[in-house]
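Progress against Task 2.4 (sequence-to-structure conversion) is shown through the following example record, which the project officer requested during the mid-term review.
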Amino acid sequence: MNDLVLKGGRVVDPSQALDKVADIAFIKGKVAAIGDNLSGKEVRDVARKIVSPGLIDLHTHVYWGGTSLGVEAELLARTGGVTTFVDAGSAGPGNFHGFRKHVIEPSAVRILPYLNVAFPGIFAFSKSVMVGENADMRLIDAREAVRVAREHKDLVLGIKVRVGRSASGDSGVKPLDIALDVAEETGLQVEPLAWQEPRDVWWLGVTEAEQGAGRREPLDTWRGLKDRGDAKKRACDTQGAEAAMNVLRLHNNNDLSAGCC
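Structure tokens generated for the chain above:
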């Protein structure tokens, strides 16, 4: 006898090319059957609702209590159907061990983190206090980022870096260069994110005449980053850069000036 049956919901599972109205039966917390007219000890009517495997949120900040922008993953999971959270670089080398011990390991939901290249991670992100973690180059130590990434290689997905007027200020794209070096040394990928394009990124690939005419082409400027990295076979290709800009659009309703985290 099944323990639980969710009856009449729209079952969506891309891994099985499944999208249909059906019943789902569970035994000891695991799916036992998908079909019609299933019975069980407990039956819940989920008609006109979507039933799917746990969702994956690809851009989150869930270092709750450790950073100012963190949210509680488990609380969010209960209301959003998310069972895997990809944390986009909340913690850096200086506090990643705490993130792992106090948040990730005890969590009932899965958290897969990026390591922020900045030592403190994203430490001051709020309505009243906004300090870019990469504005002061003293907060970035490639050796520390490499060390921590290697210590937690079973968990870290890649290296996170934010650049832009708020995130890196006068440091420009130097933090991106360091993140690329760390990624190259550790064999990890980079998640770059533009927060109000920095001055030295803004004009890459734009001629002086076009600058004078006030031309602004964010994607062209990001393509310039690829040229800068080609000599060292770095990981910042045009596709990755455009993906970063697409994330920016997604978070800000297509407003590239608003920024993201």
